[in-house]
Amino acid sequence: MEFNKIWNWFCKLSLIALILIVINSILGDILFRIKYSFPKVSAISDEKILTEQNPLQTNFKQEKYIKANGEKNIYVLKLQAEYSISGLVVSKNTNFWFRDIMRNKFDDVALIDLGMVWGDLAADKKILYKNLKFKSVKTLGQARQLRISCKNNCSNIPWTVNYVDTHLSHTHMIPANANVMGALLQIKKNDTVKIDGYLVDIYTDKSEVIARTSLSRSDKNTTSRGYGACEIMYVKQVQIRNKIYK
């Protein structure tokens, strides 16, 4: 009888703890979004975003480092390349499970993921979504991935597998400031965007490696430089349609 009372109390306390964790997570996500809800437009551009072109990348020959503030910690970024990407947004993820519980150091500094396509993939959204489906997720193993699947028979899609693989990216974004982060949160699926900044490797302030960026659009597995072929980008400027945020 005594054991049953203890067990009942344990179950009640566990339920209360779970409820508090969920509430804390929801409130944390709400506060996170409120913090970045009102980005200011820095300029209006008359130039069309060229989704037909490949990302522009210039690798640095000398080592360059900058500091970046995560939500809780300070990090050191090693700049690998100047980078500019223009494309159609096919996925977006800021849902990193329970932000204050299942958040690792990478989640602390890379605050948003965007899946983007360019070239022929971005030319016609109806053809794209008739053939392919995209989803940006965080797995139980803490990996942040872009999942791509065919809606029908993959052999019938109008592009080769290699073309698809080399004309899409899943980019983990590190905003340079709150206004840039606010702009990134404004981005919606099917937006045409241009994002400028640097490809970076992430270190702690004690030189511990957190993650390395991909430097190629053709790598596609965990043996690549970026562990999963994803780009890690320090974002200095965001253009959404004709609006520029810095």
Query: Unreliable runs, pLDDT <50, ≥5 residues?
Result: none
Could you report the average pLDDT, rounded to the nearest whole number?
88
Largest sheet report: 5 strands, mixed, barrel
User: Fraction of residues in helices?
Assistant: 10-25%
What amount of the residues lies in strands? 35-45%
End-to-end span in angstroms? Answer: 65 Å
Helix and strand run: HEEEHEHEEHEHEEEE
Number of H- or I-type helical stretches: 5
Strand order of the largest sheet: 3-4-7-10-8
In total, how many domains does the architecture comprise? Answer: 1
Overall geometric form: globular
Rg measurement, Å:
20 Å
Number of strands: 11
Question: What structural category arises from helix and sheet content?
Answer: alpha+beta
Walkthrough of the structure:
The protein is an alpha+beta fold. It has one domain. The protein contains 5 helices and 11 strands, in the order αβββαβαββαβαββββ. The strands form 2 sheets. The protein has a 5-stranded mixed barrel with strand order 3-4-7-10-8. The protein has a two-stranded antiparallel ribbon with strand order 5-6. The chain is globular. The termini are far apart. The model has no long low-confidence stretch (mean pLDDT 88).
Task: Give the arrangement of secondary structure elements.
Elements: H1 2-35, E1 43-44, E2 56-69, E3 74-93, H2 105-109, E4 112-117, H3 125-131, E5 132-138, E6 144-150, H4 161-165, E7 168-175, H5 178-186, E8 192-204, E9 209-211, E10 231-240, E11 243-245
Parallel strand pairs: 7-10
Antiparallel strand pairs: 1-11, 2-3, 3-4, 3-8, 4-7, 5-6, 8-9, 8-10, 10-11
